[in-house]
Amino acid sequence: MKDDNKTLTTGFGMPVDDDLNSVTAGPQGPVLVQDIHLIEKLAHFDRERIPERVVHAKGAGAHGYFEVTHDVSRYTRAKFLSEVGKRTDVFLRFSTVGGEKGSADSERDPRGFAVKFYTEEGNYDMVGNNTPVFFLRDPLKFPDFIHTQKRHPATNLKDPDMFWDFLSLTPESIHQVTILFSDRGTPRAYRHMNGYSSHTFMWYTHSGEYYWVKYHFKTEQGVANFTGEEADRMRAEDPDCATRDLHEAIARGDHPSWRLEVQIMTPEQARSYRYDPFDVTKVWPHADVPPIPVGRLVLNRNPENYFAEVEQAAFSPGNFVPGIGPSPDKMLQGRLFSYHDTHRHRLGSNYHLIPINAPRAAAMNSYQRDGAMRTDGNGGGGPNYWPNSFSGPAPDSGVTPPPIDVAGMAARHAYVLGDVDFVQAGELYRAVMSEADRDHLIRNLVGHLRGAKRRLQLRQAALFFKAEEDYGLRVARGLELDPEEVRRVAAMTQEERVAFTAE
Ligand code: NDP
């Protein structure tokens, strides 16, 4: 395209003579359809919105770099992690999860923390959250879960009954619920929160050794949160507070940064570990698997155009580079499918060609052709099939990940809820939280649970009790439930509890 930005043109480059007055038959109209410029302008405007992300709709992003500070080359062959001092360009998108695109940044919600590394071996996406665990461990439950966090089908209102009905019927959520209702559920700003892979991933070397890995991006600005009351106030005072904070900090040269640490487990350790190492409702306690430093991520450039760079950014946990791969984590396996799928719906089948998503430091040589909005040379006259003997790009068997043994009976294996599912929520409440943290947690929970039916309050309070007696009893007190009844319901099996609290 010719670079002359002085003359207004149509989308096809024709100079526009007048952009204030439609072509009409006489000064009083009517408007003539021959006003091509008017028709094009209205038609394009009518199509300005693309589908909102079904989750993580409200977000903010920035460009920056990742720099390796410690040698991890004995664990992974990934080139961008291969030597100390090596820098890779990144784009990071932060988001809330359940709210619509215009919702408030201070809502109680997990926060997305999605990093795209533009490596020389292709784009690597680390699509995490600001919490180290998740509500569910089976992707089959995900659409139902999200429905309960959004709006009621009849009233179009957020609905505490469906929110707590689902969570209390899904007790493996207790750990994430405890984090969500602590003040970490309302971060003061995107700069002031950690990012976690939550899932376990595989790292592997040239010689085929592999390790299980969890990522922790620790904020160098320090963790800072709103109290529940501050977050509520901020919804009215500045609904875009986190978006504004990120933009203004970068604009004034105050570049936010995170230290990347990883926890690494050998396959042998994983086989006998006290928790399922692929269960995303659990962390690996630091005392078991101490985090080791890897690098530092810095954000130093604001997007120039929000739609082009942030709205069209598309991340997928399935975007790997040689040296990094998936683990058997069931939630992760579901996401490996779902992210690419939702982007094809939202942005089209060639969304990988949009500049923010396209590889930058690596070549893109695939046999994919055609499709809506194919905007590059479409492979020119080169072969469009493999195998071919016309010098088309060939697979490189040197990047094959190591094989892992996954034999088993194909069935819908139920994950049996056990006492182990309550341990880490209890640990967080007892050993990590201060008295002030616990106080805020109870207040935040009681404030929200108060809107739900009493039978659901009872079922949920019993789950908190199972995590830690004091936790359940304080929630019960706040809701004016009978503590003895909470104790009795907590002693039941989940099936008995559900039957007892049925309508
Ligand atoms: P440690 O005492 O070694 O670490 C506690 C961790 O908890 C720190 O990473 C801290 O983050 C984080 N933390 C502090 N307050 C909260 C909160 N309100 N919500 C969520 N996280 C918080 O503990 P363990 O490794 O033995 O784990 C104990 C519990 O800590 C776990 O059950 C889990 O709930 C929580 N946790 C553990 C993590 C892990 O990967 N092991 C990661 C995050 C939380 P920071 O350092 O940024 O202050």
Structure, explained:
By secondary structure, the protein is an alpha+beta fold. It has 15 helices and ten strands. Among the domains are: 52-131 and 187-353, Catalase core domain (Catalase HpII,  Chain A, domain 1), CATH 2.40.180; 420-500, no CATH class. The protein has helices spanning 36-46, 142-149, 160-168, 174-180, 228-237, 241-251, 267-271, 306-311, 330-347, 420-432, 435-449, 454-467, 469-479, 483-490, 494-500, and strands spanning 59-68, 87-96, 111-119, 122-129, 195-196, 201-204, 210-219, 257-265, 292-301, 324-325. Strands 1, 2, 3, 4, 5, 6, 7, 8, 9 and 10 form a ten-stranded antiparallel beta sheet that branches. A hairpin with a 5-residue loop joins strand 6 (201-204) and strand 7 (210-219). The mean pLDDT is 97. Bound molecules: NADPH dihydro-nicotinamide-adenine-dinucleotide phosphate (NDP). NADPH dihydro-nicotinamide-adenine-dinucleotide phosphate (NDP) binds next to helix 10.
**Helical fraction:** 25-40%
Enter the CATH topology name of the domain at 52-131 and 187-353.
Catalase HpII,  Chain A, domain 1
Low-pLDDT residue spans:
none
Number of strands: 10
Question: Average pLDDT across residues?
Answer: 97
CATH architecture of the domain at 52-131 and 187-353: Beta Barrel
- Specify the CATH homologous superfamily of the domain at 52-131 and 187-353: Catalase core domain
Shape: globular
Question: CATH top level of the domain at 52-131 and 187-353?
Answer: Mainly Beta
Largest sheet: 10 strands, antiparallel
SS-derived structural category: alpha+beta
Please give the alpha-carbon distance between the first and last residues: 66 Å
Q: SSE order, as H and E? A: HEEEEHHHEEEHHEHEHEHHHHHHH
Strand content: 5-15%
Rg over alpha carbons:
26 Å
H/I helix tally: 15
The hetero compounds bound to this protein are:
NADPH dihydro-nicotinamide-adenine-dinucleotide phosphate
